[in-house]
Amino acid sequence: MTVAPELIAQYAKSSEELLPKLLELQNSPEWKVSKEEKDIKFYNRTEKSSSYTQVKSVVTIPASMDKVLEVLKPIEIVDSNTPKDKRHGLNERRILFGPQDDEFNTTIFLIELESPGMMVSPRDFVLFRRHYSKDGKEIFLHNSIPNTDLAPEKKGVVRGEMNFQAFIAEKDPENEENIRLTFLVHADPKGKIPAMAYNMVVTNQGYAAKGIRKRAMELSK
User: Fold this and answer.
1) Domain that holds residue 94
2) How far apart are CA 173 and CA 103, in angstroms?
């Protein structure tokens, strides 16, 4: 499917404006530890403009940057044939546009999340994706775009808004042979989910970083 160049330029501008804000947010002192488990640490943050919690998770990966990027770069398709244990909470993930042969591997893709419970509709998001290399960091940045031509809204599925979702890989300052991976996400699920109910489960999205860690370590064997 094609997308007008002027639309891509518009989406790219928004992504580029978001990037420095995201990098500043990564190390904000306002993050509060929400829980800590073996190999992963979770943080939450709130701001006045949204009732929905921001989430950060951090893992250390004993692997090279090349192996971590080998996991992060591809967008894996999820459909009805994907085994349950490889869905990672998704009903669907598919590429709508790209990846372009540019320095950012510009891509537009859709994800549909499983319903978190009875009487709650699944959510989907149309996401603009870019890979940035900046100041020793490899950043995969996703944010929602308003394009129903690429992916019309489906009956029974609520179209949410992803303010940002990102993976940031960099050398671990405590051991440069390892990679520190930070996952950040802030979304508005839209619809009628109470903020309190959403905020109780959103931290689980941070396990995405642990999944990347596991796969990069497997590639390194």
Assistant:
1) 5-219
2) 27
